[in-house]
# Entry
Amino acid sequence: MNLDPAINRTETNETPQVVAVIDIGASSIRMQIAELSWDGTVRKLESLSQAVSIGRDSFTRGVISKESIEDCVRVLKIYRQRLVEYGINSPKSIRVVGTSGVREASNRLAFQDRIYIATGFELEPFDEAELHRVTYLGIQPFLKAHAEYFSGDTVVSEVGGGTTEFLFLNREDVAFARTFRLGALRLRRVLDSYDAPQAKTRRILESQISQAIQQIQHLVHDETAAYVAMGGDIRFAVSQLLGGFQSSNIARLSVKQLQEFTEEILESTPDSLASQFHLSLPDANSLGPALLTHAMLAKHFHSEELLVVNVNLRDGLLMEMASHGRWSESIQSQIVRSATLLGKKYDFDLNHANHTAYLACQLFDQWRPLHGMDNRFQMILHLAALLHEIGVYVNLRSYHKHSMYLIQNSELFGIGERDLLLIGLVARYHRRATPQPSHEGYSLLDRESRVAVAKLASILRIASALDVTRSQRIAHLQTRIVGDEVQLIAAGVSDLAVEHLELRDAGAMFEDLFGCRLILGSEETLGKDES
Amino acid sequence: MNRSESYFNRESSWLNFNQRVLEQAFNAANPILERVKFLAITASNLDEFFMVRVGSLSIAAASGSNQTDIAGLTAQDQLKLIRKRILEQNQLQYGCLLDELLPGLAEHRIQRLEPGQLSSRQREYLASYFEEEIVSILSPIAVERPEDFPVLRGARMCVCVRLGNGSGGKLRPKTFAGESGSDASETGSRFVLIPFASNLPRIISLPRDAGYEFLLLEDLIGLFLDRLLPEQKVLEWTPLRIIRNADFELDEEAGDFLREMQQLITSRATSDCVRLELSEYASEEMRKFLQSSLAVEDDDIYLARGPLDLSALMSLVGLPQFPHLREAAWPPVPAPEFTSGENIFEVVSQRDVLLLHPYQNYDPVLELIQNAARDPGVLAIKQTLYRTSRDSKIVSALTDAAESGKHVTVVLELKARFDEQRNINWAKRLERAGVDVIYGVSGLKTHAKLCVVVRREKGGIKRYVHFGTGNYNEVTANLYSDVSFLTSDAQLAMDAVHVFNAITGLSVPQTLEKLSLAPINLRESLLDLIEIETANAEAGIPAEIVGKLNSLVDQRMIDALYKASQAGVKVRLNIRGICCLRPGVKGLSENIRVTSVVDRFLEHSRILQFRHGGDQKLFIGSADWMTRNLDRRIELLIPIEDPACRQRLSDALEAYFKDNVSASELRSDGTYRRVPVRKKGEFRSQAYLYEQAQTLYENVTNPRTTVFRAHRSND
# Structure
């Protein structure tokens, strides 16, 4: 599956890179090994999965048992062996994420540490927002290729082991995203705890699912045009009922057909499903509850058919890796859109925010040789630039601190907790004090992130200073680096007195950090950059 | 219709197969040494039959089991039936040997001599041969009391001597478990057992002026008994041979798997005796003594009117001075795809390759693994091994690969019956070289023949796969007919890797896109394919199933074929050995035809073809249609999609049904009838396939081509 052709590749015709993504889920650990070519194509090589019982522990007792942890270690060691075979060693080639089962455990840090010590795998922080982003990325190509299905409102729902994720789309745009603690494994646990006879299974599940659906009542406004279903269980249903996906990787399944199939499934025990359909026991356990959830949700959203897409979390993660840290234009635009909406909520100066962001990104691009940061940090800077003044809504005094608080406690599509913290910190440091070890949030960061925050904040200060007039008069910038002098050539203006003044303070952090002198000039004073 | 009308008994069917092999021994159109070979094969076949089939039936009968087989027979019924058939078959074997083959060989100057026919020069030679080579190796064991009777090895020849009382001289033998002079038996006879050592030749070549003359070892011993047992009064002696039950279950949960395997091999040495063969000239006293000492029933005794263990005749077949008494050699031909000088990876990247062994040689398969061992781009090799040759080049290549830093994983099936010890030795050797050895899957035998080579190339990771119907054994690859399929198809390769991950416990089985795997979905896939033909026939669409297998025993598969036939599907089956399906029965199987080819190469390949409404499906596989293969083994069914390969495979499959030289047809009464030559003339499938292989090769290497291929310095 290809990405947006808009992705800018610098290397061409290189040997494809072999990478792996590992997804530690509630009932299994799955690994997908794939090749990423220079043009963003993902070619799958091998997939592995093994059953573990993380969800069983954390959904009931909130803690992952020692046994389960060691079981995960065992599986990950096996996977590590396979990676060694392919020569995949660099952490940059491996992404390991944990989903709801891991997230909800109170001992998740201990879990993470144990995994790292035993296997060398670093479990990435991967919260719900990140999941939304990756899910959106995964369905992106379908939105484009089958636009006829997505002309109105769409709800995308993935029923997992511990949670059900919803993305509400308005055409291609994300209206909002939500995750609910409604999952196939959880439902199975409830069933087991009732210890009810097989015949009552359906009734119990229905009542559980209805309760959960109550919570999302208010989210449904108009009739949705499409219901997109994701998840291993619904994909299985497609393979059984429709013989599989065609090469388009999208299938249309009528709700009625799904309901009939679900009836059948719920009449059998997981053991008999496992042997009849050659499923692993965890898969057999989740099948009935998951399908019923989809059927009831689709009905709730007044859909007569489900669009099932043949893409999973690992596919989305691979697509992200294929873009080498730079999110696709469509993702970026969703994120920026989400940030803009957030800013509007706090009545910010939209034009100044946009222009600051615009200038900041220019500076980031042009100063790559100086700062050496990758594309992910550009997005962080962009968002910090958009949102750096929203704290004004609370109070003009120390508004930078309010901005940080608001950013950290708001929802931005596709941006997880870790990155929200960074954005918040960059916004906080765009004026007044520079980072101190005593500052909350900053002190918890690792060295790379602390340095990144400082660098980004220093750039934001400059970008903000350049629009101190709030007239967006500096159309665009060019950089010339001469020795330890960074010459900034502003186009479209001749008199930069106000900006110069502002920069005396605003540029200090940058000069200290990078050990250079910042010189602002116009095309007349510094000359156009010929290079 | 009751079961005996719908199905044939398996053992009976097998005995029919052995009968067909025996018929080749009787076939005067075969050169005489080839006939001797077939006779020897019938004998070793029967040995194995006793070890495994009779052994397991004895246990079932002894336990009082009332279970019946597919045709409704109990274990007892089957043992009775077997006894009757084997007595008949034995008669035929000896008739063939004594009335046709030995006289025929004698005409060609190959002569077996009895002691009375030896010349004095020969006697002198034998006397010193006996003293120098034989005496020190043989260990006669005197049996004075019943408990002195030694544990005899199964399938090993032995001589039993009955001694008279008197002349009190001490016996010469090394082991003497009793006092001299004590009473041995009720009649006053004493017995001495002389087991043959495994390193002694059974057939002893004699000095002669011309031709070839030989003496059997038992006759040599009989001739010089006085030297072995001096001052004893020899009343009679007889050769004998026992077969012990070898059908054991392995306790896979018992901790140390390797040790359990070793124990199993050793316990075969002392299991119950299921057959006692001895000369029909032995006295009743001798027979009674042996019968009670070995705890065999009357029905387990087989009296022979000629030499025992006819499999020993195999050593005559290769006598170098007599090439005119054998069929001309058919040396395996190189495959045309590999003549251009490109390395195997280049060739297989460009196209899939189908090889028909033994007409085409096994080199490409060896090369795949040997090249993989040396090629710097290769990351990993994964392979299954079920039975290999003694000096396996494949195992050497795998150890080389591991030593040069490749990741090598081998699934080495230790439970390969009778090859356990060899496989254990290989396992240790491979592990020492750094190979990751998996001893097989608990409860299942890994019977699939699969090899995957993972290679990093400029364009990315590429995988090369070998699928086969035959074992990774370069020796049997020249004796059995089998199919090899080499491909770099990405989907087949990914499926193959997923199969390995499942077998080696690295992963839960993933969905396979093209392959079918037993015991997961192979049976289902086959039943679906048959079902589709059945449905097509019912809908008036032409439907056909063509299959080549070694055995057809599984009831569900047979029933599916019956249903297909009843719907109008044309079913043609070439089943080499056991077939429990009854063809040509009105209302049951009118549309099913079964033939069998028994010829110079043992038929072993498995090929299936389904018309599939016009979108023909063609497969090769590792599984025969027996319940154990479909439900209790790891097996593969591989689709062949490349058009050129399909054409060739389909053509080869057809050839078996045109055979009228070495083919027999199974009739609805269970007997086989030779397929007769008709107007079109003789067609011998194995000869046709060999000629084909030669033609393909010649077309490529024909010097009279008009395009010259120059060698440049950078080739």
